[in-house]
Amino acid sequence: MLMITAKAMSSYMDLNADPCHDFYQYACGNWGIENPIPNDETAYDTFEILRENLDAVLKKLLEEQPTNKYHALSSKIWRNDAITKAKYLFQSCMNYDILEQRAEQPLLNLLDQLGGWPMLKPDWDSSQFDWVLLMAQLKLFGNDVLISEWVGPDIKNSDEYVIQFDQTSLGLPTKDYFLQPSNKMYLEAYKNYLIKISTLLGAPLDDASQQAEALINFETRLAKITSAPDERQNLSELYQRMSVGELRQLVPQIDWVQYLSLVLAHRVSISEPVVVFALKYIQDLVTLLGKTPSRTVANYLLWRFVRHRVSNLDDRFREAKQQFYYILFGREQAPPRWKDCISEVNDYFDMALGAMFVNKYFDEKSKSDTVEMTKEIMQSFLELLSETDWLDEETKDMAAQKLNAMTLRIGYPDFILNRQLLNERYKDVVIRPDQYFENTLNILQHLTREEQDRLGTPVNKSLWDTAPAVVNAYYSRNKNQIMFPAGILQPPFYHRFFPRSLNYGGIGVVIGHEITHGFDDKGRLFDKDGNLHQWWHEEAIEEFHDRAQCLIDQYSHYTVREVAMHVDGISTEGENIADNGGIKEAFRAYQRWLDENGDFNETLPGINATGDQLFFLNFAQIWCGAMRPEATRNKLQTGVHSPGKFRVIGTLSNSEDFASVFNCKLGTPMNPIKKCSVW
After folding, report:
1. Which of 104, 272, 514, 520 does the annotation list as catalytic?
2. pTM above 0.85, yes or no
3. Same domain membership, residue 636 and residue 564
């Protein structure tokens, strides 16, 4: 294990680079040579390699035949057994012969049930059209079009579920794709994709082209009334709580009682509270819709629905999507079908697939190790908090209370190992091995019903709502909870036989990162119970903003030369705060571990580096990667994370610990005189 790890780490390094000049080049300079971007990827990095390895394991699990006991009862089991349902969903997705035989007919049947897609029907009757009714029908399949609605904890009272409304996404990544002349080629590709899908479903080319033009013009006007992320930074300003009756007075053009009664499947009172995050958008939307022909509105609503549902059809539609993705993201070919099928099963049967993975592959020792490391890294944050000279004592005390109240979820929820409880979770979902299209609809309706039915029930903050078999980690502001799924507890983040230098530089930094999210630009707005309110003194808020502004300015100066674009220091602020705090906390915890245990076995064979240096090397190599130019442009416009290179350079150039460990002289690029620090 150690020899393999050392060999891989060495192969990525550029030993000709000066670690004090560009540590990313030093740690990752040969990564791209060793790992060219596969044709079916838009980017390739350490995370993606881990995801691919995990997907291969999940594929093997899903392809295993049921035991004789279950096989004999298969006609009955698909109605009851969650794991069998997950396998049947995978089978239905992979059974291409049936998909080819059925072609587009399942979608056409569904569109007829929804009143017909005008793109396909020259004689479509607008007199029967009600956009609010259609929007509600699409919501039942999990599609938020025009307006986003969900039932979730109230951000100002996290113990109460409440109906919430917001603006929704557009058909391209950001509004600028519609509005900036420099993005014209992407808008044209989007229109061509719409036309191609329409004609595959039977629309005459001339009709499809004409209606597509009207649809794109409408969505461009929609983009103009949509707020960009940097206009939505202040949650307190966006938040407006009111009754359904009050919302009806503010936006009388929408029958809110009818819409909510359909979505919630029960009559809604006008006194029912709702939270609205985009009131002006909704008011502007109804004005726009009042000026738009019904045919165009219906075309748009159903296009946003159709675009998702063609993923459940045959390969003609996958090829059309690939042509669009090549222009939008630079992806050279579609991934093999099995990868998409694995992703869908993990989205829809996350706990069932997680149970299969955990039962066979999860090392329980990693759970106890991660719990212990989390305690140590929380202790580091408390120490940094006590040493902070810009916070008043009362705010410090409340921040410490928040940290101590932070809950931890590691690996998986216990219930998934109880077959009866696992089956209960999916008992209402019907899955057949030969009906992929219907299977997906059944799951989407089930998930929507499950979410909407939470209204009126107490919030259970111990609920685990993340797939166990994923390579990621999370912090929930509403729950004040950090979560590390089983899928991330593997090399290079963690291994029980790794030197502690690698574990602290890997999963340790991730733990510190997630803890720090509780105190970043948005996390700090929420108290220990997950409620949004001002618990900081005004002077402390000003001091925080001054320090955060230093990071915003620092990262905004970074340029991605390949596309001649700057990093957006405002959009990435929270992640940059978490990166900078996380590495400081993890290194401090590692030093404490060394004080107690010594530095024996803290190095790797064949790598001339101390344990302290390996800590920073492993941190950096987690962010080794490459990305196609088109995908880079998209990420810089839409992402909340800085590119991997600048997550390394930005974080380490602010670290006194790093400069000391690598003996970087003050004034070198990796040890600048001016450094930024929030925590």
Report:
1. 514
2. yes
3. yes
